[in-house]
């Protein structure tokens, strides 16, 4: 099996699996219990928060704020957006036209309730980061943007975005969906959403960073766990696995750049291939169109040979991308789009097999 769909989900690493198993066997107590098993669970949660705060900063100095563990990035994004706008004085939200559905659908709901969402498309601006900041005015309560787009790998300089937004309006809060950017690009924001299963942890665990001094109402009410921000018994086992996966992460820009360069070289030797991932993209995600071969045909043909790729966001379940048009990609090329996404375990040999499969499919379909 050759797995090249890591932007959809990753295989849990051995360190994560071992940490989950150890917590299940040895630290299964409820973190709200007063006995030593409860204390052991509290210690696991505290250690994981420290790990995440350090990893989010990308420096020796952890971010100054709190980590709320969630069921995943969808919950984190919902908590951030709905929480901010519930208390907001301004009615304006600045965002991108290429957001994940867990942001885009929430914004659509907010628009139904009288808020204004200004959506900026990458195809329209040479300096997209600057364009987002320029759209901020005195009525802008929130800027929400993904650090790395899940379909193309397009990246935003969120550190510069954060600085420019605060310069334009210090009261505007900045939310960053860092699901694809976590551990891959520098991050900054008042609220930052991350997901475990994108970095070799398990599904069902994510987190929301909330900067010190920022108060938003909780999305989930109940027993008051996690400082009343996310009620429900903490999934200590999944938190332990998330912690272990972050500390064990082996992906590197150098490795991904080498793989992307090799893939682009191989694709350049084929006819009618259009690369949809621009130069301003992370190297671990490559989107391209095999003209004349519809995405689903290519995907199933590769799958028959044990090669797993995607046509775009896994959440779309094969539906036509709502994101690629905002990058200026034509409908014809969208119908033929393929997304390849790497992890640390992928090699150039994997790419050789992939490209051989693409070539054979082209030959069969185009003849």
How would you describe this protein?
- With 367 residues, the chain is an alpha/beta fold.
- The protein has 2 domains: 14-248, Type I PLP-dependent aspartate aminotransferase-like (Major domain) (Aspartate Aminotransferase, domain 2, 3-Layer(aba) Sandwich); 251-366, Aspartate Aminotransferase, domain 1 (Alpha-Beta Complex), CATH 3.90.1150.10.
- It has 11 helices and 12 strands.
- The protein has a 7-stranded mixed beta sheet, with helices on both faces. The chain has a 3-stranded antiparallel beta sheet with strand order 9-10-12.
- Strand 3 (92-96), helix 4 (101-112) and strand 4 (116-120) form a beta-alpha-beta unit.
- It is globular.
- The protein starts with a strand and ends with a helix.
Topology:
Elements: E1 2-3, H1 14-26, H2 36-57, E2 65-70, H3 73-87, E3 92-96, H4 101-112, E4 116-120, H5 128-134, E5 140-146, H6 158-168, E6 173-177, E7 191-195, E8 206-211, H7 236-248, H8 253-268, E9 273-275, E10 285-290, H9 295-303, E11 307-308, H10 331-334, E12 337-341, H11 348-366
Describe the structure concisely for a colleague.
This protein is 38% helix and 16% strand. It is of the alpha/beta class and 367 residues long.
Major sheet: order of its strands?
A: 2-8-7-6-5-3-4
Tell me the CATH architecture of the largest domain: 3-Layer(aba) Sandwich
Query: What would CATH call the class of the largest domain?
Result: Alpha Beta
Enumerate the spans where pLDDT stays under 50 for 5 or more consecutive residues: none
Domain count: 2
Query: In one word, what is the shape?
Result: globular
């Amino acid at each position: 099996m050759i797995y090249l769909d890591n932007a959809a989900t990753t295989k849990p690493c051995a360190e994560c699996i071992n940490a989950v198993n150890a917590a299940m066997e040895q630290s299964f107590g409820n973190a709200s219990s007063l006995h030593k098993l409860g204390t052991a669970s509290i210690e696991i949660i505290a250690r994981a928060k420290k790990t995440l705060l350090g990893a989010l900063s990308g420096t020796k100095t952890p971010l100054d704020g709190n980590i709320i563990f969630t069921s995943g990035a969808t919950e984190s994004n919902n908590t951030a957006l709905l929480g901010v706008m519930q208390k907001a004085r301004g009615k304006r939200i600045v965002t991108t036209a290429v957001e994940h559905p867990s942001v885009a659908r929430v914004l659509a709901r907010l628009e139904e309730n009288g808020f204004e969402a200004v959506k900026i498309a990458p195809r329209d601006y040479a300096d997209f980061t600057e364009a987002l900041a320029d759209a901020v005015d005195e009525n802008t309560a929130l800027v929400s943007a993904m650090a790395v787009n899940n379909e193309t790998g397009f990246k935003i300089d969120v550190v510069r975005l954060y600085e420019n937004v605060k310069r334009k309006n210090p009261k505007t809060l900045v939310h960053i969906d860092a699901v694809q950017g976590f551990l891959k690009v520098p991050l900054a924001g008042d609220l930052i959403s991350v997901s475990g299963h994108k970095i070799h942890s398990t599904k069902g665990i994510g987190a929301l960073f909330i900067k010190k001094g920022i108060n938003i109402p909780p999305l989930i009410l109940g027993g008051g766990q996690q400082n009343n921000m996310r009620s429900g018994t903490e999934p200590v086992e999944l938190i332990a696995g998330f912690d272990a996966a972050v500390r064990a992460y082996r992906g590197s820009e150098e490795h991904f750049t080498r793989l992307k360069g090799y893939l682009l070289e191989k694709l350049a030797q084929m006819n009618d291939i259009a690369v949809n991932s621009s130069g301003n993209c992370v190297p671990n995600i490559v989107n391209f169109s095999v003209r004349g071969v519809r995405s689903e045909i290519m995907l199933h043909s590769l799958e028959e040979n044990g090669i797993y790729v995607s046509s775009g966001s896994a959440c779309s379940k094969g539906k036509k991308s709502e994101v690629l048009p905002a990058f200026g990609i034509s409908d014809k090329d969208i119908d033929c789009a393929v997304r390849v996404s790497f992890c640390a375990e992928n090699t150039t040999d994997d790419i050789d097999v992939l490209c051989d499969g693409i070539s054979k499919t082209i030959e069969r379909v185009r003849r």
